Amino acid sequence: MEEKKLVIIGAGLAGSEAALQAAKRGIKVTLYEMRPNKNTPAHKTEYFAEFVCSNSLGSYDITNASGLLKHEMEILGSELMPIIMKSKVPSGGALAVDRELFSKNVTELILNNPLITVIREEVKQIPQNVPVIIASGPLTSDELSNNIQKILGEDYLHFFDAIAPIVEKDSINFDKAFYMNRYNKGSKDYINCPMNKEEYENFYNILINAPRIELKSFEKDAKFFESCLPVEVIASRGIDTLRFGPLKPVGLIDERTGKENYAVVQLRQDNMTASLYNIVGFQTNLKWGSQKELIHSIPGLENASIVRYGVMHRNTFINSPKLLKPSLQMRKNPDIFFAGQITGTEGYTESIASGLFAGINASKYILGEKLLELPTETVLGALTHYISFEGHTSFQPINSNWGILAPVELDKKIRKNKKLKNEILAKRALDTIKSVTEKI
Ligand SMILES: Cc1cc2nc3c(=O)[nH]c(=O)nc-3n(C[C@H](O)[C@H](O)[C@H](O)COP(=O)(O)OP(=O)(O)OC[C@H]3O[C@@H](n4cnc5c(N)ncnc54)[C@H](O)[C@@H]3O)c2cc1C
User: Is the CB of 358 inside a 6 Å radius of any atom of ligand 1?
Assistant: First the structure.
């Protein structure tokens, strides 16, 4: 009998989930990962499924599109979701993990799987005549990028995401900083550094005058996502823009004074032992010396020990609307599937979800079964349809949001009640996913 084999390029979030999905279906997987022999500009370890920036996966609530996607993934049998749940750290309403614990556990699970062979090597060319999932991520190596470009015959697009700095908790001055979640929701997970008007204006002046890292020529047209804008780009829009964005003071009353502050910098727990905290919304392209000056100008962080500076990186994604079917299989070459951020979906949760979906579909392809296409009543279906929709005039990556789901007929009163509307959409999505799952 012919052996059922699949090659996967990249053991990141998408590739790891895809490999486990295929192995679960009896497929022999060869999983290529270039780290630690060759690193990306953002990864720090040799572990699989590394979170390169924030340790938060966003909401787990079904009334949030990203939260609903996580529930869909669980119903579809995600292998990474249970590991995420086991590596959780407190983070208010969000789902955040101890990144090292999570990645170590994923690595162990893969290395112990008898159907998965791991090869620590950079893939420079897409393998021919064998089903393959390309999950090499936003920082795909240059040689592979060139080869993919040659095979696809389509132009790549480049832009940047930015990493926020991380500081040691023990170096934070709690005479000034205080623990509190916005509107006192849940336990006190966030550390808040309050600013008065004068302190804020001083901080703002340092920020807008700080030198930035010079972009390379092909990087100059960088397009940022609104949700991941560098702090200096937000600041450049006006002196108060940050106070309505990441430095919003509302709902953060300092219990010691009983007052709301002029601005508040928030820090989120970054590791299980709570020794490290990242500065929320401070993804940046500033030079490291300027970052230090800026961070030390924040009340409570005067002596903060910075363990990782913010940096900016390339993001590589293909022109999916021209290349992919909603099953994540290439239109022109059925042996090739894409998964993860390289498909033009954005975010940790989305990357794992697309790895899950590509893993299921590549297995089905190998087993001679009909491929799965999820309806747009589901978040995952809406995402895969969005990226493969040929009618885009200008394609930009997307993350989970309610706007891409199939609309639902609701009376005016319910439409105005966002929570209720989202609950209805969520119920519809989960019922749909459950009915699909019975068939896979
Ligand atoms: C700097 C940066 C910060 C980000 N921050 C966030 C964030 O805070 N929150 C969020 O939700 N999303 C964030 N993202 C977006 C995205 O969700 C993550 O990048 C996510 O890890 C993408 O998953 P992936 O599986 O597609 O790629 P990755 O997780 O990057 O996995 C790809 C893997 O392929 C390997 N690889 C690359 N080329 C080759 C090759 N030629 N041969 C073999 N192996 C190869 C890489 O080493 C890597 O392990 C960020 C992206 C970047 C670049």
Answer: no
